[in-house]
Amino acid sequence: MGDQNRNNIRVVCRFRPQNKRENAEGGVHIITFDEGSDDTVRMEGKEYQGNFTFDAIFPTTTTQKQVFEHSIKPIVDDVIGGYNGTVFAYGQTGSGKTFTMMGADIDNEELKGLIPRIVEQIFHDILESPSTMEYTVKVSYMEIYMEKIRDLLNPQNDNLPIHEEKNRGVYVKGLLEVYVSSVQEVYEVMKRGGNARVVAYTNMNAESSRSHSIFVITVSQKNLADGSVKSGRLSLVDLAGSEKVGKTGASGQTLEEAKKINKSLSALGMVINALTDGKSTHIPYRDSKLTRILQESLGGNSRTTLIINCSPSSFNEAETLSTLRFGMRAKSIKNKARVNAELSPAELKALLKKAKSEAVSFQQYISALEGEIGIWRSGGTVPKENWVSADKAGAGAVTPSTPTTPAAPNPAVEAAKKEFESRPSTPAPILEKDEREEFLKRENELTDQIAEKESLLAKQEKLLAEMKEELGYFKEQEETITKENKEMASELSELKLQLEKVTYDNKEGAITIDSLREANAELSSELEQLKKTLVELKISQKEGDKEQKKQEKMAQMMAELDPSGVISAKEKQIREALNKLDSIDGSGSATLTMEELATLRRELADSKSLVTQHEQTISELHYENEHLTRKRDELEVRLTTLELEYEELLDKTIADEEANSKIDITETIQELRAKLEGQYSAKKEVQQKEIEELKQELEKKNEELHKLNSALAELKRANEELQNAITEKETRIEGRKDTAEKEKDMERIRKTMAQQLADFDVMKKALMRDLQNRCEKVVELEISLDETREQYNNVLRNSNNKAQQKKMAFLERNLEQLTNVQKQLVEQNSSLKKEVAIAERKLLARNERIQALEALLQDAQEKLTTQNQKFEAQLQAVRERLEQARSQKSASLLGSFANNPNNRIAKPLRGQGHPSLEGVDNVGGSPTGNSFAAAIQVVLLLPSDVMRSGYGNTLSTPGRTERRTSWLPGFR
Ligand SMILES: Nc1ncnc2c1ncn2[C@@H]1O[C@H](COP(=O)(O)OP(=O)(O)OP(=O)(O)O)[C@@H](O)[C@H]1O
């Protein structure tokens, strides 16, 4: 294979056998392998039918060893030879990338993959190398997951920045490089790193990796004979599945993940496209972490092999086709691999010598030039043939045309230039060298900052996720509590409602009782009112009757006393007679005739008879008065008897009623009795008073009667006197004698008569007044007597007759009704009271229940709070434990890798083969050609980066000889 060919990316294709799922899905082989050709494969798919030619084809039956021998082994040789090498494994998930790279079991001779075999080969080559060669092997293991670089040997560093420096090129800053001195040590590192890999489940493959893993082995070698140094770096890359997201069934976070993984893969595709299309000036290495790290491997200083892993099944036709096309594109990428060598001291010495002589020549040339300038400046001239040139100045290496350029190219500068040229150019405008360095520095700083910010962001995101989880838990708790709370609240509100209902019913009951009481009182008062009205009506009726009767009686009595105004007429006649007499007396002539006298006598006789009549009337009146008094007394007696009888009857009735009815009726009867008694006693008092008054009046009347009698007697006497006078007059007329005497007598008589008449007038008036009064009294008495009689009758009726019985029945009915109403009211009252009592009891019970519920609620809340606190404490403890575990893990990892200074100490290995140069200082002093174990000596060197990291501080002092005598246990 020519060098030109070797600079092309080697693409080999491996097919795995159909897996269970493909068989189950009815997948058939769509790939056919040509027996005669080991580099062409034919695809007979639905979508595509055609051949693909690669550097090598590995059918499904190819063993791990065959793959290694036919595709990878040359790369190992290259790395040992000081070249950079890269092995990519590309393909869809489950296509056999990991199987190819790492193998199913690294301890199994058959199944172990390329990486273990490479490691073994490297160590084998080292051991096979001449003893003048001293090697140091260091490994690093990282993964790119979600566009973040994680150190698998120090997983705490999960977002390492990529730096680029002029001398080192592109590298991952802070990535742990572990020095290893045996295959077992490498295995140990691989196993530890593998454990830290992120594996996410997809339905394509349960162990499918969603990350790109890069295992780097750096082999540095020093030729002890000439001091030359070479280093080769082998990157072994297991890419993430190249399938489309949909097919893996990835979703949710995995979708996000897939997008980022695809970002790296699509960037890889873009880089390959740009490298192979022949027209792109810009290669987008910076588009992803993967392409940036593998910048050297793609079109740069590296010998690269791409293993494309495919499924032969029709089930994965699309993915297989895509993978094959990817391989085809990558095939044409051209690299510029070169040996990473440093000059030996002899070479450097020669270079120095040359440089020094050049410096001297230049110095001479400068002084000659300065001399010539001095002449020119002083106004002189220098002929052209004398002008100073580099040749003349003695600087043989310096040509006159390019005085500043060294004649021979500086090897160191050339080497640096070569390195720059060989490195794929990072897209940037054409810059000055210093500027470029400055920019790279600035870029590195910025990358660091980005990485820092990203890890901070990741931490925050993690914290956020934790918080979200916690929040979710608390929300759940809150939901449960809220639900419980709601239930309790609804229960509470229900209870409250019931309580309110009970209270309301209670109130309603009380209101009903009050209204019934009021109705009762109203009915009672109505009854009272009716009774009163009845009594009043009766009284008013009686009073009306009484007044009428009184008027009638008075009229009758007065008519009886003065029938047809006889007295007045007689009085008139007498007055006329007297006036006549007066006129006779006044004229002095006896005009009174006999006829007139006879008339007078007749009138007088009439008067007499009238007086007699009056006397008779008075006596009758007297008699009647006495009769009335007697009657009244009788009535009084009867009234007393009646009262007694009534009382008896009342007692009897009450006793009967008491026997039949309840206390309430008795009360009503008692009330009635009290009322009646009150009425009777009041009436009795009034009547007694009246009787007293009547007695007094009677006495007065008697007195008046007496006076009347005496007045009557006087009238009689006057009458007699008048008769005497008349008789005298008759005798005078007859004798016509003694006229003067007669006149005198007449005068006297007239005067006496006038006097008597006036007296009579007064008396009559008084008598009439008295009579009227008496009549009134009599009438009143009679009315009162009637009333009493009526009352008596009433009482009699009340006690005996039907009306009384009816009334009693009515009253009883009323009473019964009232009793019923009262009973009902009492019943209602009692039932209401009962209900109220029940409601109160219920209320109390509910209050207790509410209190209990409240207590329960409080209890629950307290419990919740304590649970919450407990949970928080637990969470804290878990967090602490997690932190502890993490720190322990990292400590253990670091203990074995990062913290173990031995891992950071270069453990140079010496070749067992014959020294290539005679007289090389065998520093280790170990005999060549001895046993395999004895041939490998561990030489403790302190590389510059270990010194930088500080680990070398304690180890830099021990003597070299002592350290050289340490033996690698793995090789004993
Ligand atoms: N050539 C082969 N011969 C036999 N079995 C194989 C071969 N290649 C792969 N397998 C099996 O197929 C399965 C998937 O392989 P592997 O895990 O290597 O796939 P992968 O491409 O690395 O997947 P991922 O992208 O998820 O890492 C494994 O069980 C492996 O043992």
Automatic annotation (TrEMBL):
Any GO MF annotation of the entry: ATP binding
Location(s), subcellular: Cytoplasm, Cytoskeleton
Record's protein name: Kinesin-like protein
PANTHER family: CHROMOSOME-ASSOCIATED KINESIN KIF4A-RELATED
Alphabetical GO biological process terms: microtubule-based movement; mitotic spindle organization; spindle elongation
Domain of life: Eukaryota
Binding site for ATP: 91-98
Cellular component GO terms held in the UniProt record: microtubule; microtubule associated complex
Region (Disordered), start-end ranges: 894-924, 951-972
Pfam families (UniProt xref): Kinesin
Residue ranges of every copy of the Kinesin motor domain listed in the record: 8-333
Keywords: ATP-binding, Coiled coil, Cytoplasm, Cytoskeleton, Microtubule, Motor protein, Nucleotide-binding
SMART domains in alphabetical order: KISc
